[in-house]
Amino acid sequence: MKLTSMLAPYLPILTWGRTYNRGSLTNDLTAAVIVTIMLIPQSLAYAMLAGLPPQMGLYASILPITLYAIFGTSRSLAVGPVAVVSLLTAASISRIAAPGSEDYIFAAIALAFLSGVFLVAMGVFRLGFMANFLSHPVIAGFITASGLIIAASQLKAILGIQAEGHNLVQLAESLWAHRQDINWITALIGSLTTAFLFWVRKGLLPLLLTLGLTEPVAKIMAKTGPVAAIVATTALVWLLDLQNLGVKIVGAVPQGLPPLTMPKFSLDLWSSLLTSAVLISVIGFVESISVAQTLAAKKRQRIDPDQELIGLGAANIGAAFTSGFPVTGGFSRSVVNYDAGAETPAAGAYTAVGLIFASLFLTPLIFFLPKATLAATIIVAVLSLVDFKILGKAWRYSKADFTAVATTMAITLVVGVETGVIAGVLVSILIHLYKSSRPHIATVGQVPNSEHYRNVLRYDVITQPHILTIRVDESLYFANARFLEDHLLARATQQPQLRHVVLMCSAVNDIDMSALDSLEAVNKRLEDMGVSFHLSEVKGPVMDRLTGTEFLEQLTGDIFLSQKRAMDQLTPLT
Amino acid sequence: MKLTSMLAPYLPILTWGRTYNRGSLTNDLTAAVIVTIMLIPQSLAYAMLAGLPPQMGLYASILPITLYAIFGTSRSLAVGPVAVVSLLTAASISRIAAPGSEDYIFAAIALAFLSGVFLVAMGVFRLGFMANFLSHPVIAGFITASGLIIAASQLKAILGIQAEGHNLVQLAESLWAHRQDINWITALIGSLTTAFLFWVRKGLLPLLLTLGLTEPVAKIMAKTGPVAAIVATTALVWLLDLQNLGVKIVGAVPQGLPPLTMPKFSLDLWSSLLTSAVLISVIGFVESISVAQTLAAKKRQRIDPDQELIGLGAANIGAAFTSGFPVTGGFSRSVVNYDAGAETPAAGAYTAVGLIFASLFLTPLIFFLPKATLAATIIVAVLSLVDFKILGKAWRYSKADFTAVATTMAITLVVGVETGVIAGVLVSILIHLYKSSRPHIATVGQVPNSEHYRNVLRYDVITQPHILTIRVDESLYFANARFLEDHLLARATQQPQLRHVVLMCSAVNDIDMSALDSLEAVNKRLEDMGVSFHLSEVKGPVMDRLTGTEFLEQLTGDIFLSQKRAMDQLTPLT
To answer: Where is this protein primarily located (chains A, B) (predicted)?
Structure first.
């Protein structure tokens, strides 16, 4: 076996790199140019959202996007700073250091490093399934609430005032307290830019199509709206000297390659960032993989979740060593990359080259860029994530899912992002455990003239006074073992003529030791009542496990392959 | 409806009290006398185990046993201090106050009160199912580890030295550090008493039977061994003035009725006791209900778990108001009560009268009782709880259950009782979630010449290259939704001729919103690949829920009542 084919599963580049040709190159280059143009304002804006210097947004895109190209499995995913992860970064590190301080920057770098190591570890140990505990209702509730918090946090820049807070309540109070300080020129620039960007989202595409552009070109041009807004507002500030009238600008951004950094090794810092690193990793991974899978399916390509973890982990470790902050695969940029025709992860590498060019030569151009413009691009981006319809949808589908959405949303808005996610995960686990702790249990009887046995409450079936057949629609495990025990014993004491109890196990996929003990107890207690206990329709793997247990030795009744056989044998011939 | 019949479900006494007659009275009185004799040393010993004055053990038995007689549903359960709950009490309150101090006593009373309120609340809100999360492996591991810790903690009294600690490591270190201080007379009394009590357990019953006693009488007499040990060692100390040679004695115990106490209302105290109160309540409830159910089943009586919570809650609140500490239904005393012929909970009330007599008149008699004797009764009682066989049994049955037992046991022994239980509960929940997050998924095919569809790996079945049928043996919910999604998509990309994917849902008892979203995603992605997605054998309640969802509207394929119909329709006639 050759070295390359041994490494291939861990280095997807060895697979696609082999068939790389001039056609792919052209497509990837085109996509890279478009994504670069889109990424510049996004990167600056998300750095600002995270409370970091704008250039760190560019730095966080260069090496990460390249490393993902080597280790990731998606051919279209564009990795870099994204809104929700930037918000989580800010929430986490602002507990440790003051925004603007050097410690704050170190903390962001350490967070990217920890998150990268955690992602790689999850990938290597194949722990990607952990991400499953972020249920869809929790993600939906969290994303909507985070979108609102992000939008609210950006209002300060739009209005040119100071405001702080990590939840909607704090932000609203803080904005209200500073309402006298509004800089009206900033507010005008900010609100016009916001309105323009909303219009770009809804109105530009139809306009471009009417103007005769083809749909793919029009779609991509519509995404460059933020660049136009940046150019226009920067020029406006420069021409009218608005910075002297209190309009806050980005100012001097250092030119040059991302400076190499070494993540600080500090157990204290690391332990205070650990929970946040886990949350950021898991949330970032979930966001990234769903984008990657959506795009891959369209080309019948395959995403390997465990390899994706390694790809994203490498990207974050890369961010930590090049003055970046936590990154993940972003939705909008990946879609643009895909639409622009990116064929392989090489497009990402070319984007990195574009961003290097930007950080080397373009930063002086954004000196006069108003912060309000960046805030406007953030607000427009995140408000598209806000979706209250999920509440109604969840309510109609199931009250359990509604509870999970509503809890996550409410706690995120009122308490904060990290508490919100954790509460959501705990609530959904508790709801699941609660549901499976009281499984659906039906008393069944024979559908006349058939071999079918159905719920006595749903069907007109034949039952016998000396036989009770109970079907339980859940695997038997500790959370429902005693419930079943209580139910069976309660039913048995109610039926004085009872001689046989049959537990129909057609929907029982597992029996754990607590459930086995409960079945043993049921068997003994029924025996004390003079009633035999039988099982029917036990599945193969469950039967394998029961074989050789005391329960089976002590069972007063039999195990029947089918419910029909049980009834045939237990019904006396009359 | 009469008031009494309205109240009957909440006051079981109204049910059994109505048919109370002279026969029941005689039986109950006999049982009460025997249980009283047994309870006196037990109560003193468990108070000592909890680090409390011995008379509190008596107090904790009087009103609680009476209140349980009114509110509880078991006819044989004897409520009072028990070993494990006393150990938990000591572990909890010694964090707050120094043993021997007044605050320590107040904390014990507050703990009983909180635990009582919590139990009543669980009963009223029908939250008894919460106890299910203490799985059998966790309970087994915890009881064995606690038994060892209790036995180790009593070694100090047996040896007449000082030793402290809340886990086996601390206790062993402390005993070793004080090894020079052993009082050899105490050690002699202690070890002989222990040996005698072990012999009583194993050897006395056969001896009494050989001597011609009937089995019930012999059984009960064998339980009075501790009383004999107490009488003998007390007499010995008194006769030889051993207290002057360093043998620690119980000393002056106040005579009189249990003093009324008012649980201290202190939010600080309560909040620091809350977790412990919850743990004690749940563990006490689980211990109590399993005893109650075992005994009730023998007489085909019914135990109502929610009413039991109220009964135990009332008992604990009673303990709090009469200078007691947390109580629950004990195993050995309830078995004695049952064996002695108790017919109704009135036996408990008569036992209370016996204990009042004891605390009024008998306490001077135990002035010379050596503490080593009490320690010996505890050691012998708890070592019978220690059962390492559970490790092997769990290992053979399932590695998951073994992990839960071993974790609980190890953490309880090394860290402490509360951490041990909590770790055990968390580990068993995580294991359950992990298992259900990677459900058994089988590719199925048709068993030749039949309507049965089975696992291709277990049976020799017929499959078709353009149809893939997958059966998933688990309810679909957030923890396994993405796993199924990955599996289906991975399988679909492997089979180039594929046109149809059928998901066989015969073992799917529920589909939550995350799983629905995953199915929607699978449907869309398969559509992108040109493959239709079908479901078969969907259960009634699951189908009810799916009706009206977007998923069903967008489904590219059909929903088939049976797998056979699916295959008939999807197989082209050739």
So the answer is: membrane
